[in-house]
Amino acid sequence: MTARTPVAVLGNGPVGQTTALLLARRGVPSLLLDSRPHRDLSGSRSICQQRDVLDVWDFAGPGRRIAAEGVTWTTARTFYRDQELFSYTLPDHGSSPFPPFVNISQARTEQLLDEQIAAEPLIGARWGHHVDRIEQDEHGVTIGCASGLEVRADYAVACTGARSADLRAALGVDFAGRSYDDRFLICDIRAELPGWAHERRFYFDPAWNPGRQVLIHPCPGATFRIDWQVPADYDLTTDSLDERIRAIIGDRPYEIVWKSVYRFQSRVASRLRVGRVLLAGDCAHLYSPFGARGLNSGVADAENAAWKLTYVLSGQSGPGLLESYHTERHAAALENLEITTATMDFLVPHDEGQRRHRLSVLERASADPAARAEVNSGRLSEPFWYPDSPLTTVDPARPFAGRPARGSVPPPGPGVLVPDVPADGRRLRELAREGFLVLSSDDLPEPHLRFTPALREALGARDGEIWLLRPDAYVAAVLTDPAELPAARARALGW
């Protein structure tokens, strides 16, 4: 059996689904391959979907349905033992139709993505095909499956998840990092908990899980996801889950919907592009879940890969465009690794110095509001910014000041995702994702969108400036001379 496709997407999870949908949105056919016999719809798994990811899914198709079905939460509460240290209300940037986060089970998200795929003639999906061979030459990629199916593609995107050791080995990719000894017990329970339906709760060292943490998230259908940190030798079969749950919810009726035990890892692949193969999602990086940087960063991988493959396949790009996928998304992966590792070092200290530091911070934060900024329960997912990308034209008048404070976004400028604001009767990001977009107040010899006063204010645009936006709504360049526009566009296309 032989199949031919421009892009083979290996792995039919949410990152692979998103990749295929974004390619189809731009007119590129793809074939999804998955080793499983069918979709696994059990458990909540990755539940926190960030606003900018909902925006990507809106371009792909089902973003508004996912947002409408999810539980919106805007408040994050943090406790130490029986005392609330602080609560944090997520800020609202721009005029996005989406909330900062929604909680919805990964299973339901996959169902909604599947419905969009089923209506898309440019996407084929085949289950029960385990990839056991991948070879490349100057013209394409050959993918062999244990089922006997062979797929010939121009390019492949590997979204095969955490258990991708054989595939990474075949590509010569290392996956350095660490595994954490402590485990995490996860339960989805259905219960009525008044006042808890729109907030995330994080407990340090509660009496009902001494010395460790508990995280509680609301989900649709009066369901709550509870994560307990448990010892390395924890045994689910002998634990009294009822006692654990009742310590949190009291004498209320409840139902266990799903339960599991995880050991988290922090790893990043040494290469995210190997020839004609791109690695995305958990195949490329693994993080602890505190901060919701797993699936959210995987969707960002998918968008980055999809628009670049579109331009490569159409012959409009230069030789550097595909390599910029590794440059940009590997840098994003390393930042996510740094942030989540710092969180895990605070949550799960691995030496006496870290344990003393954690205890000191929590004790001081109980009485001193100034110490609360040192409490690390996870910096919530946010976009990565590309000021150092080879695709970005540097503007000395708009230097990038580095990672902003938690909950903040950098001011618009080269390498930064534009705010989601109205433009030409639509949304600026919608317009940008249709192709490279030029913004200007002046007449130009090429198609462009004129600045409105509201758009100028949202971007902080100055008189005479020309803004060039990439197809993922990031700013490629801010220019003052129209003659520089062709060079900036060429740079953003990898020439």
From TrEMBL:
Gene3D superfamilies: 3.30.70.2450, FAD/NAD(P)-binding domain. InterPro entries: FAD-bd, FAD/NAD-bd_sf, RIFMO-like. It comes from the Bacteria. GO terms for molecular function: FAD binding; oxidoreductase activity, acting on paired donors, with incorporation or reduction of molecular oxygen, NAD(P)H as one donor, and incorporation of one atom of oxygen. The keyword Acyltransferase does not apply. PANTHER family: BINDING MONOOXYGENASE, PUTATIVE (JCVI)-RELATED, TRK SYSTEM POTASSIUM UPTAKE PROTEIN. This is Pentachlorophenol monooxygenase.
